[in-house]
Amino acid sequence: MIEESPDNLKEERGFSNDEESTSQPLKNSQNCVHKKEMDIYEIRHQNFMGMLEEYCGGKVILFSEKSGINRSKLSQYKQGPIRTDRRIGSNIARRMEIPFGKAKGWMDHDHNLSDPVKRKKELSTPVVPVLDVDQAFKYLDTKELPDEFKTIPEMMPGSAGVSFALKEVSTQFEPAISQGATYYIFPMLAFRPEMIKNKLIACSVEGHILVGRLQILALGKSTLILPDKTVIELTDQKKQVIGLVPFIRNP
């Protein structure tokens, strides 16, 4: 799980850099700025609650696993923007959008998710392409998918606004991971090693896609620890790391 970093201290207080400059009128006046800021926090809260219900069955722990946002912070956000530390700032809103395939800024607009019918339509579960290894490598190299997935959104800089899935074809990792299990992968176009240290990631190793936890060693070296404790040395971390694996579904 990705812990909130000191860099996000302003986010913890309910606003990010682009919101801090307009936060002072909340304390000192009752002008229109106060209304504008409260509106966006209420909208983000409504959207968060809609996604939490539709995608995670209302379970904060599942939302945390998918988004990497601290579980205790999500529990605070559930209570609504009644205090500054319970407001969803811009940085957190962007992190909520990515794992569910939402466009940047989606959280900042009112989608009328309080209406169950409209919520169901707006948050219909996106199709996640289940690819074989050859298709996955082709997608990563060319961004081309099989015809049935041609409508998949374009990848965004920094990380991917989309994901793909792979099936486990071997029995090597049973009973922890069963044959036929599905790995959900979020490709990352750029990352810092400390961001993914000890996280579950997918890596390219000799024509295979392997899933394990990244271990950072001395002198810039790193290894991938597989579910059966096999240790794989990564010779070129930047080229071999594909992305995060926030969720595995066993059959």
Secondary structure elements and their pairing?
Blueprint (H helix, E strand, L loop, with lengths): L8 H4 L4 H4 L4 H4 L3 H25 L3 H8 L3 H8 L11 H8 L18 H7 L7 E2 L1 H10 L21 E4 L14 E6 L5 H4 L3 E6 L2 E9 L5 E4 L5 E4 L2 H4 E9 L2
Parallel strand pairs: 1-2
Antiparallel strand pairs: 2-3, 3-8, 4-5, 4-8, 5-6, 6-7
Number of strands: 8
Distance between the termini: 23 Å
Largest sheet: 8 strands, mixed
Strand content: 15-25%
| Multimerization state | single chain
Extract low-pLDDT stretches.
1-37, 151-161
| Structural class designation | alpha+beta
In the sheet with the most strands, the strands line up as 1-2-3-8-4-5-6-7
Mean pLDDT: 76
Rg, Å, rounded: 20 Å
Helix/strand order, N-terminal first:
HHHHHHHHEHEEHEEEEHE
Percent of residues in helical segments?
Answer: 25-40%
Morphology: globular
Task: Specify the number of helices.
Answer: 11
Overview of the molecule:
The chain has 251 residues and is an alpha+beta fold. It has helices at residues 9-12, 17-20, 25-28, 32-56, 60-67, 71-78, 90-97, 116-122, 133-142, 193-196, 237-240, and strands spanning 130-131, 164-167, 182-187, 200-205, 208-216, 222-225, 231-234, 241-249. It has an eight-stranded mixed beta sheet. A hairpin with a 5-residue loop joins strand 6 (222-225) and strand 7 (231-234). The model is unreliable at 1-37 and 151-161 (pLDDT under 50).
